[in-house]
DNA sequence: TATATTTTTGCAATCGATTGCAAAATGTTA
DNA sequence: TAACATTTTGCAATCGATTGCAAAAATATA
């Protein structure tokens, strides 16, 4: 009933055993200079008295927090929540804790989040950039103080920061080539802010694939928006109102692709025969929509695990961060009905 | 270039201004006893010298962490990531930080997570229970020390802990009644572990609706599984192999409902005419599947916001937790094609 | 037994911010 | 100007764990 059970400290243990707090402190963390017997007594007393270490005191003294910060654009997307789950697993196993915050796709909030992380003295920071982040001055303080900074997915190339991502260029190249193989001659591309590597690279892959296959690039077929469901809907109308409609669409994200498909289906466009579709991300919805959506699969969970492991290895084993400049994870083209034209060779 | 820029402390500021650290400390937090002019000087010096408060020292002295812990079954579900996003927003605005961990639906991990939260001295804890948690002894230490504990969605009734959830009973009652109205006479129900309020209440609502409408309850039509996509697939086969097939299915979760529908569609079952379907959660996939899935909508984001606000109000304004015993949020029946039989009156 | 070695332990300072209480500075009133 | 009230400030202890260094205890060697 007592709200006020007193906290047990190493001094209480020391008193009880008639030894010094220093010995207790060392004993608790298995310091080699402490006698085995004394250690046993200390551990027993600690357990019996319900001791729990005060991490503030320890952090204050040791100047490290055992906390890793994470800043992501949004927590509630299928991909990102997979990433977070992967990070959480690795970090938790290493006895670190996570501070998580979301930038809500705004650079302004990202800046303030970074500041909060800095003031809370995270031991490391993992970041996937907001939609409109134009520079990373707000992360300089970390770099200057030698606090490890790792980028993932939406990265920023920096010599001191490892980056974990996929080969967006190649994935986009492959998926575009696939559409061309299926007989598409006018392929539209819907993408996001070209400041972000993920979207710029996908656009580049799309354009290169067109070029290599001698398909002329038509800039009325390139739409840049925020890749939301609403934007997908609007893009559908925009594309259907063109003087010459596309016969294929490659969207840089499944959510947007699917709402675009749905809007087109309502206007009686036949997918894939009138217009073939391809997305990106292998979102759960992509194999629910009919026809199922051709897309690029890459594992958020693994990306989270990998990024976290690099961070933890640096913090725990003092691994050199420079050594891992960047880490490219596997991605895979998944061909489904949305891009398989009837008359095609495949 | 210097990795080792020294941290600025209140003592450095005090020295520079020839005043005491106590005054600096008070000045920085706008203590009323400090002269306006002195305050201005302190703030200016702090800014100029790049001071940042050391939260460890502060926490150590104040015995509070400004950290709120969250334990959820999984981070990567559409619903839960919405909840987390809502929590993050409220908590962040109040200048608190979040420790997040996932129990992965296992009581064992939930126990160890709770312990970690306790040792890290969170100021409050928010929990949605794991699939198989059978008691909450692992949370007693929080209750005993007066650390506020709030349950949401998958709750545990406890006089000292507010709970935020929806009326699962009524929602299930409504959705089952709707299926009956549509002419269903043999309604199967797929649900999860009946230890969890959310599933037990939904099952209860289902059964009561049957009873009130004089539809006999057939226990071969009640399937309890883990509500995963795989389980939905298996349930489809189980139901189709019954001597008399159901003409309606109410699943306690959309993910499972959709995989069940997909499996049935593959066997040429016509939905809704052969078998009507209803789910729960309004997952994004529910309006992508064809036919679109009738379901119960409840806003994870709002649930997260609400739960977090109760916590924050308690911590910041010292609101009484007892006062809010439980908070029932709105949920809404969303009728879509999956449950609209052709010959029905509606 | 005396001396040298090796193992164990303790002293005391340190990490920065906070706060009760007393003292100093300033302002007010008679 | 004296006496008193009000504002501002500073002293010094405190929150617990950590750690360099020295001292004590235990063990080994001559």
From TrEMBL, chains A, B:
Entries under InterPro entries matching the protein: HTH_LacI (IPR000843), LacI/GalR-like_sensor (IPR046335), Lambda_DNA-bd_dom_sf (IPR010982), Peripla_BP_I (IPR028082)
Superkingdom in the source lineage: Bacteria
Domain HTH lacI-type: 8-62
Pfam family, one: Peripla_BP_3
Record has Transcription as a keyword: yes
Keyword terms of this UniProt record: DNA-binding, Transcription, Transcription regulation
Listed GO MF terms: DNA-binding transcription factor activity; transcription cis-regulatory region binding
PANTHER family: HTH-TYPE TRANSCRIPTIONAL REGULATOR GALS, LACI-RELATED TRANSCRIPTIONAL REPRESSOR
Protein name (Swiss-Prot/TrEMBL): LacI family transcriptional regulator
Record organism: Mucilaginibacter frigoritolerans
